[in-house]
Amino acid sequence: MKPVVIGNCTLYNADCRDVLPELGRFDLLLTDPPYGLADKLQGGTWGKSYDGDHKDWDHLRPDFLPSIVEKCNLSIVWGGNYFKLPASRAWIVWSKPDRGLTMADGELAWCSWDGNLRIKELSRNPNNKKRVHPTQKPTSLLQFCIHQADKQTHNSTIFDPFMGSGSTAMACILEGRAFTGIERDPRYFDAACERIERANAQGRLFA
Ligand SMILES: C[S@@+](CC[C@H](N)C(=O)[O-])C[C@H]1O[C@@H](n2cnc3c(N)ncnc32)[C@H](O)[C@@H]1O
């Protein structure tokens, strides 16, 4: 399958199951897969606020996720608490200071290495920008993740097979890492390409 290549980012508009056999190993898996919560959340505040948009892609939990973890030297999986992954002491907690909402006060990421739990305090939308994806992760949160993984070993190649709007790619551009991403939904894939193109152009300007 032919990817779109923008700078140091290699991007596939495909189901990751079709692309995975073509790819080699990566230093770090940094991903935020669908949690399979669409039906549970339907009608709730979160579901209504996105007008059911989440339903298309959050319907099925990718139970093949552990096979992707095996392809990578280190892994960080947002929503790792929804998957059958080995027991770990090393979790990243995203603590959201804007409390008192009907949504959760935080989110959890499973880490593959042995280490202590770390907490990142960060508001839901730190730059107050219009979000492209209903569950878009802040770029600075993903930069924090890369820094945590780098404490184990430096990670040059980073992989996100559920890239949504390309937030992991944005963190990789800022941290100077090679990124490979896969997104099945053409709307989010196009949005990711646009964001990545813009960030790359900005980087070239500053260089
Ligand atoms: C939780 S969202 C990721 C959001 C992302 N972290 C962001 O900041 O924009 C998960 C994404 O995985 C995509 N997806 C679901 N199953 C997939 C599959 N089998 N292959 C590729 N992408 C898939 C969905 O379309 C969705 O955009």
Q: How many beta-strand segments?
A: 9
Structural class: alpha/beta
Which CATH architecture of the domain at 4-66 and 126-206 is right?
A: 3-Layer(aba) Sandwich
The span between the termini is: 32 Å
Major sheet size, sense and barrel closure: 9 strands, mixed
At the fold tier of CATH, the topology name of the domain at 4-66 and 126-206 is Rossmann fold
Q: Which ions and ligands are bound to the chains? A: S-adenosylmethionine
Order of helices and strands: EEHEHHHEEEEHEHEH
Mean pLDDT: 90
Rg over C-alpha atoms, rounded to the nearest angstrom: 16 Å
Assembly type of the chains comes to: single chain
Share of β-strand residues: 15-25%
CATH superfamily of the domain at 4-66 and 126-206: Vaccinia Virus protein VP39
The shape, in one word, is: globular
Q: Spatial order of the strands in the main sheet?
A: 1-2-9-8-3-4-6-5-7
Low-confidence stretches: none
- Number of helical stretches of at least 4 residues: 7
